[in-house]
Specification:
Elements lengths: L11 H31 L3 H11 L19 H13 L6 E5 L6 E5 L8 E5 L7 E5 L5 E6 L4 E4 L1 H11 L6 H22 L2 E3 L11 E2 L7 H13 L4 E3 L6 E4 L5 E6 L8 E6 L7 H7 L1 H9 L1 H4 L10
Length: about 325
């Protein structure tokens, strides 16, 4: 009995028909791709935008019979999505997309930062999925994004390393703050438009935010050192409630506390920042007050604010 699906038993016309069908299927895949690209580039509907980006981020354009020589990587569609999201919220001028000559590869710059930072997305290959937004020269992964799980997580380590350490001597503080605010706004749009779970980490200005530090049992000398440097800079550091930790009143109504959040059982030392308008984050404090920045960096092994352990090492 002849198997019509076995190439070795097909007639010449049968082989040609199969070949032609495969070509048509490959071209149809290309047409589907162009429709998704139109949607990503042109839509003014946020739901349509994220739907197109989600599909393009895992889209397989080539087939065995049809290949397209000029293609962006799947990670590049996240950059397009981010740029379009900002554009739909009238912030499109805050980022600049760039492509390399003779190669379909996108990178992004934060407009205030200019060429002091070039960014792209790197696809996470583990079962977590998603992507990391990183600065290409340093490799610092500033945040994690997962469109399917509706997750967004900032990295305390990368934000500190890039913006508090690496760019400290060459980029003005206000430029750094303006640049980082673009990333904060992008995360906020995801939260407000799509209900994403967002961890702003050291960029969270809410008074309720407790920034848990890396050391479970903070050495006493670290807090003692803050007493000394605060006094040297004309700020008064006082003992916390019941002698637990310490509190420092900064300019205006900003108050920073460091204390053990779990007096019974396993200790958890945290930092908090309170201000009446809830506009000041721990990142803002590090940018504005050099003596606190130096104290934090000198003790970073113990004081570094933790990031989501399910995403960042």
């Amino acid at each position: 009995m002849i198997n019509e699906n076995d190439p070795s038993t097909l007639t010449t016309s049968g082989r040609l028909l199969n070949y032609n069908e495969a070509i048509k299927a490959g071209l149809e895949t290309g047409i589907t791709f162009t429709k998704l690209m139109d949607q990503l580039i042109k839509t003014t509907d946020t739901d349509e935008l994220v739907a197109a980006a989600t599909q393009l981020a895992s889209f397989q354009l080539d087939s065995d019979f049809v290949t397209f020589p000029h293609q962006y990587s799947n990670a590049d569609y996240y950059l397009l999505f981010m740029s379009r999201m900002l554009e739909l919220h009238d912030q499109g001028n805050n980022v600049i997309l760039q492509s390399r000559d003779h190669k379909e590869e996108l990178t992004q710059q934060l407009t205030p930062l200019g060429d002091r930072g070039t960014f792209n997305f790197r696809i996470e290959t583990s079962e977590n999925g998603g992507v990391f937004y990183r600065e290409r020269a340093t490799g610092q992964a500033l945040f994690y994004l997962n469109l399917e799980r509706k997750m967004f997580r900032f990295s305390s380590h990368a934000l500190t390393q890039l913006f508090i350490i690496d760019l400290h001597d060459t980029v003005p503080a206000e430029t750094v703050k303006t640049s980082v605010q673009i990333l904060v706004d992008f995360a906020r749009f995801l939260k407000e438009d799509y209900g994403y779970s967002v961890d702003f980490n050291i960029l969270d200005a809410a008074n309720r935010q407790n920034y848990a530090v890396r050391a479970a049992d903070l050495p006493a000398g670290i807090v003692d050192r803050l007493f000394v440097v605060a006094a040297q800079n004309d700020y008064m550091l006082t003992n916390g409630v019941n002698g637990n930790g310490a509190e420092i009143a900064l300019d205006g109504d900003v108050v920073v506390d460091i204390f053990n959040n779990q007096l019974e059982g396993q200790p958890e030392w945290v930092l908090t920042v309170h201000d009446n308008e809830q506009k000041v984050s721990w990142f803002d404090v590090l940018i504005k007050y050099p003596f606190i920045r130096d104290w934090y960096l000198e003790n970073l092994t113990d004081l570094e604010v933790k990031s989501d352990p399910l995403v960042f090492d």
